[in-house]
Structure formats: structure tokens, C-alpha cells
Design brief:
mainly alpha, 2 domains, two-stranded antiparallel sheet, 9 helices, 6% strand, elongated
Amino acid sequence: MSITAEMKQKMQIESQITDLLIGEPLFEVIRDTPMELALYNDSYLAEIFEKRFYSTAEVAGWFGISDAQLRYYIKPFQEYIFPHQEDTPSTASFIRLSFLGVLKLRMILLLKDEYRVKGLKRLLGIDEEGRINPQPHHTTGTDVIVHDNLAQKVEILSNVLNQILQTGIFELQQEDGEPKISLNNDFSSQKLNITESSKQIKVIEEKTEQLIKDNEKLHNQIRELNDFKVKDIAVKMRERHIENAVVSQLRDEALVIFNSQKTIGIFKNFLKLQKLKEKKNNSLQVI
């Protein structure tokens, strides 16, 4: 089959599905979402025929689930899937699904994770006994757009109201059976307490800031004192070094002087001894 033929067949299938499901509650939910594309692109659509009926085992194989799982989702929605029991050749143990029934079941499976069984029942108007009473749905394109826009506006307003109530400033009350939004008195008292707490916090912040400044000032003084001590020690070490140098120099000079004087004394004693020897020798010669 050529690409053009495949596209033509796909468009025909999409048009056929849209004609069958227009006005269906679940179809209105999945329209304009990725689930709508999944509904159109299922591979089984290429081999299904509208006028035939299919067993649960065959349909389960198309959807990639077991027969038991398929029956689990058929049971709560039987009246929705089989609106005309006489037209479907099904029994209590042997269920046959028409093309429309297959499409409805496929939409249920696409939405089950988001809405669960209870949520799907609410969408379809099914009561606890399984009876269906769906709300009327418009079938024209213009009416569907208006309905969608209105639902979107209601959802937006509901979200805005929830956000307002979550602030705690307002509360929802009932007055004469009508809902009424009023100022939350508890919130007002809490606001006053918050104001007093804010003042106390401000005082604490100011005191903390002053302590930080005092601590910084003390730190600077200690640093200056340490710098002064370092300088004073350096001066004293320099003075001690000079003093030691002077003492060493004086000691060396004293030693030099001492040695000089000692040498002169020895020389004088030697001369004196020589003179005594000469006098002695002279005396002996006279005798």
C-alpha cells in the first residue's frame, strides 16, 4: 500500500471514529489531547470492521492486556459499552464487542489511570447500581467549543477561589443555604501577632547588628595591640642585638689592651733582670 493510500485510509478511520463518538462523554474528555491521537493510531483499526463483533480475548490481544483484565473494566461499564443488549450477540460467559463497544472500552483504558473507575463513573453518570443516566451532550462543533470554553472558565475560577481560600485571609461560609466568602477573623488576630513578632524580631536584629559592630571594633583593637607587641618585640630584639655587639666589641678591645700591657710588663721585667745580671757580673770582676 502506498503512502498516499495509507494516509487516505487513516483519514477515513479517523473520520469514522469521530462520527461514532461525537457527543460521547469520554470522547469529549480526550479530545485535543495525546490520548485522542492514540485512539486514532491503534494498529488494530486496520483490520477491524464496523459490522462485525469481537471476543474479549481478541480485543484484549489488541490492547496488550489479558482477557481477565479486559473483563474487569467491562463489568462496571456494561450499560455504557452495551447500550442495546439485543443488538449484541453476548451471553453471561461469552461477551462479544461491537466496533463502537471496542472504541468505548479503549477510551476507558486510556483514562483509567487518571480517573480510576469511580471518576469514570462520575463522567458517565453511572450510579452505584450500574445504571447510566448521562448528561445531554451537544453534538455540533460550535456547541462543543462553547461547552469546552465554559468548562475551562469554571475550572479557572475554581482554581482562583481555592488559591484565595488557601491564603487564609478569607473563609467560605454558608448563609441561608448560600455560600459566602468572608474575612477570616483568626487570620486577622494571627496578623496582629505576626506584627508584634515582627517588631520583636526587628529589635533583635538591631541588637545583633550592634553586637556585630562591637565585636568587629574589639577585633580591630586586638589586632592593633598584637601589631604593637610585634613591633615592640622587634625593637627590643634589635636593641639587644646592638647591645651584644657593643659588649663583644668592648671585650675584644679589652683583651687587646690586656695582651699589650702584659707583653710590655714581661719586656720590662726582662730588661730589669738583664741589668741585675750585668751589675752582678761587674761586681764579681772588681773582686
